[in-house]
Specification:
Helix content: 25-40%
Number of helices: 15
Strand content: 15-25%
Low-confidence stretches: none
Shape: globular
Number of strands: 21
Oligomer: single chain
Strand order of the largest sheet: 15-16-17-14-13-18-19
Structural class: alpha/beta
Length: 495
């Protein structure tokens, strides 16, 4: 039983909290204790949220506002989130166990997405088409899709949600959010802030729940598009389900990212990048550099030094400033880490460091797993081909450029990759040949609001961030107008 007060949350629909008899519990991964309960949404709750969004979209509440006015409201929301970044960060750490500093930093940079897309809101333009007949005016309009369903994971809840919500709002859409059942509180609190600064009720709605809630959202006929971030199998299910009624989708899915260290790399810089790429968020990021390919001439040295540094990582309470790695988010994820490492050992891998749960004094119920480094990992083994989503790094040697490109591209994923080399020609050459939506050179895990992000292959469909993202929330209408007063023969086709 929890020794702390358990907070109760309802859905947020049409500007008010909506309770439900059906509820589920969220557990603090640091202590293993319940800390909040949430309404468990059914099809009726989703229908209520979709109706509220539809009323806001079709009425004078949102679509009738000028794009400039919508943009100004988005900027006010950004200011409110920035002012509440500490509170939001603490909520997110309580939900998913990530370091408080990281969660507060994410809450502080989330406003940049709103500022950027707010500035684009009144720059969405159509164009005039120079058709053959001078008496005909043909022009295009860029119009919002309508109501967007946003389904998000637990690892960076507000940050990832805003990557979808900001361009959707700038394009003139209304939104229904289904956050992860693990991390719903911060999304509800952020949406409340939007309405405090003047967003009309119904523009932003939150329906909390589990898988059935997400399925109800995908199936609802008034939801024009689904933006989903999560695992590959769930993403495949979302895509198939949405396709049955021709709903648009953006899918940002998993990764098995390669972090490649060539023999001409700055080794100290590369080691720091390898460690940060996998252990900074306990491996709970879609771009985690979980496969380290190290040139054979450096392999043993880098492997041993990585293990030595991993031994020094301070595991503990993510609310404490001295902690360098917190727990994984759920008991299920903890058990998955154990299974993946156990299977890797059965397939011939060896543990250099870690490979087990971590005991943290004073937190016996926490979901802690040691930073783990594996060697002797076969490139086609299960752990080299599948996402762990935990602090597990496979270190694999290679001999030459052609070999490592084939190894790096040799998975079904293609989200991100890192290249460490002081030879700029090589760096660009390899970056161009890697099948990944993002390639970092002599750096890792950087992202910004104005640079597109998304995956190749099974890592997703579509792009988030940048100007490209707003196009994914718009549709084009072509308008034809006959300017001549002459009567035209209706049976003559004109092109």
């Amino acid at each position: 039983m929890s020794t702390h007060e358990v907070t109760e949350y309802g859905h947020w629909i049409g500007g008010q909290s909506v309770q439900s008899d059906a509820r589920f519990t969220s557990y603090n991964p640091t202590t293993g204790e319940p800390w909040a309960t949430f309404a468990n949404g059914d099809r009726a709750a989703v229908a209520q949220a979709a109706s509220a969004a539809k009323q806001a979209f079709e009425g004078k509440a949102w679509r009738a506002l000028s794009p400039t006015r919508r943009g100004r409201l988005m900027m006010l929301w950004a200011d409110a989130i920035k002012q509440n970044a500490q509170k939001i960060g603490q909520l997110e750490t309580s939900q998913n166990g990530k370091l408080l500093n990281e969660m507060v930093l994410q809450a502080r940079i989330v406003p940049d997405w709103l500022y950027y897309y707010a500035g684009l809101a009144d720059k969405i333009e159509g164009r005039v088409i120079p058709v053959e007949r001078s008496s005909v005016l043909n022009y295009t309009r860029r119009e919002p899709l309508g109501i967007i369903g946003v389904i998000m994971p637990w690892n960076s809840p507000l940050f990832l949600t805003m990557m979808a919500v900001a361009p959707a709002l700038a394009a003139g859409n209304c939104v229904v959010i289904k956050p992860s059942e693990v991390t719903s509180a911060s999304i509800i609190e952020a949406v409340r802030l939007a309405e405090e600064v003047g967003f009309p009720p119904g523009v932003l709605n939150v329906v909390t729940g589990e898988r059935a809630t997400a399925e109800a959202l995908i199936d609802h006929p008034d939801i024009a598009k689904i933006s989903f971030t999560g695992g590959v199998e769930a993403g495949r299910s979302v895509g198939v389900r949405a396709a049955q009624r021709f709903a648009h989708v953006t899918l940002e899915l998993g990764g098995k990212s390669a972090n490649i260290v060539f023999d001409d790399a700055d080794v100290e810089q590369a080691k720091a990048g390898l460690l940060a790429g996998i252990f900074a968020a306990a491996g709970q990021t879609c771009v985690a550099g979980s496969r380290a390919f190290v040139h054979r001439s450096l392999h043993d040295r880098v492997l041993n030094e990585l293990a030595e540094r991993a031994r020094g990582i301070r595991i503990g309470n993510p609310l404490e400033a001295a902690t360098q790695m917190g727990p994984v988010a759920t008991q299920t994820q903890l058990e998955k880490n154990e299974y993946m490492v156990r299977r890797a050992l059965e397939e011939g891998a060896s543990v250099v460091h870690g490979g087990c749960r971590a005991e943290v004094p004073g937190l016996p119920g926490g979901y802690f797993y040691t930073p783990t480094i594996l060697t002797d990992v076969k490139p086609h083994s299960f752990i080299a081909q599948n996402e762990v989503f935990g602090p597990v790094l496979s270190v694999i040697p290679f001999d030459d450029e052609e070999e490592v490109i084939a190894l790096a591209n040799g998975t079904g994923f293609g989200l991100a990759a890192g290249v460490w080399s002081l030879n700029i020609r090589r760096a660009h050459r390899v970056a161009h040949r890697l099948e990944a939506g993002t390639v970092w050179v002599n750096m890792y895990r950087a992202m910004t609001f104005n640079s597109p992000f998304g995956g190749y292959k099974a890592s997703g469909i579509g792009r988030q961030n940048g100007i490209e993202a707003i196009d994914a929330y718009l549709q084009t209408k072509s308008v034809w107008c006959e300017l001549s007063e002459e009567v035209q023969d209706p049976f003559v086709m004109r092109s």
